[in-house]
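Predicting holo structure, phosphoenolpyruvate bound.
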Amino acid sequence: MSFTVHGLAVSRGIAIGRAVIVASSRMDVAHYFVKPDQVAAEIERLRRARDAVVEEIERLQASLGEQGAHDAHPELSALLDVHLMLLQDEQLSGGVKHWIVERHYNAEWALTTQLEVVARQFDEMEDPYLRERKADLEQVVERMLRVMRGVASPVAAPAPSTSETTVSGALFDPTVDVPLVLIAHDLSPADMLQFKQSVFAGFVTDVGGKTSHTAIVARSMDIPAVVGARSASHLINQDDWVIIDGDAGVVIVDPSPILLAEYGFKQRQGEVERERLARLKNTPAVTLDGQKIELLANIEQPDDAAAALKAGAVGVGLFRTEFLFMGRNGKLPDEEEQYQAYRRAVEGMQGLPVTIRTVDVGADKPLDRTPLRAGEDHLNPALGLRAIRWSLADPAMFLAQLRAILRAAAFGPINLLVPMLAHASEIRQTLALVNKARSQLDAQGMVHGLVRLGAMIEVPAAALTIPLFLRHFDFLSIGTNDLIQYTLAIDRADEAVAHLYDPVHPAVLHLVASTIAQARSMGKGVSVCGEMAGDVGMTRLLLGLGLRSFSMHPSQILAVKQQILRCDTTKLATWTQSVLAAEDPAALISD
Ligand code: PEP
Ligand code: MG
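Done. Tokens:
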């Protein structure tokens, strides 16, 4: 039966495919496709795991018999019988084989997928005894996974400690021609990066906001996505046909043939539009009245430089280096590894400037999957040890990053950008460490280059003390994602308050406008690198506010350029003033 789930539209376009649910599986498994000639071996791997678990349980039963525990604990013995029965269950093993044969999933992925299917059937059972057998099924699957991982099973399987979705190790090989869409409860930004290499045509998550980092990475991949879709991962079943409308924030499950045809048409229209925009790649971004606009790219990894160039970016306005630090189980990249990464980005941009932002972990970008340390779940990470605060708390780590950036600057122009500054003392400490890094490299005779220094304006305290920043820095970059979050006290990752996350709230516009005006009056560079810069609905207003440098994901550059080519900034002044004075600016902007 067809139904619709609503969420937040975060990445444009239409995706149509079969659902791959990775939501409620508690097991941390790798997801990858096996080659057609590996299918038989994968099934064999599964069979061997099953046989090993059967043997393990039979041994356990025998030992119960020897200890006379059979009679003492008849329920234990009965439970093991249930486990044996489940292992031989045709629906489980037949279903798992289906995912391997038809979809080419690796055995672990196939097993957890089928677990999901059967577990849902258990959930729907009326008989409470039968419903509770779901836990047995999960234990049996966990035993098999443990065998497949080559880890010996403890006799009493401990309860899994995490309920998190994980897609670690997901290296996808597009051997299967059925389009697949990913449905998950949540995905960490690190997981999202893994998906950059995936075959998924789109994704949906239950949680997340429009400018959550997960959504940002989705946009960078240029695949349709809907987040904050509440219980999508529960409502949608494994392998359901799904349409993701990334423009409207709608997910249609099990669509009728008429809807499929309609969305198929929209999808093709989108492709035609993209091809049309691609022709603008080499057109200079100049307004009708001759104002040259700088269009820069936001990147997460050195290799993204290729996409930036392909979209016609004239530089990188934001390299979010924290993605080099995430998902590494606490082992941070050392100076040498970072130097190689930054150098690759600089060389990849072929002489165009690269703005490298120092690490911004914390809040919704935890280093690893666990967002908080144990016992700290009462804290608000967005207000905690994040970004520059985290860096200054570990000067040795920060120095290593600064040295790596300065060394990479010998290979091309680099701007060094510092996130989330608010205090004069933070500015002083940061600049002192930059000087220290430079002197160390000089003393060691290591090659390094000059960098321009920039500050992100993303905390209201910074936006209200711009002269302080202009005294110390060569340029400013406005991080509207955080500026909105902190000005309006709205967690950018929380879908429950997403309706209050308002980029055109008068307070936000006031801070953005005054930052641009003050930087310009001092002749200093200012750009916007938050999601606002890539929103075509905001281009006219930002131009009217005097912005001449925009940084956004490469996938958005051409659409923004199209808007710029249609604008005459001499005609924007009056309108811009009325937007700034309006009680409800959104109404004027959408006109
Ligand atoms: C911002 O806050 O607008 C920004 C660009 O930084 P990030 O999204 O990485 O926090
Ligand atoms: Mg930010």
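Residues 39-66 form the longest helix (28 residues).
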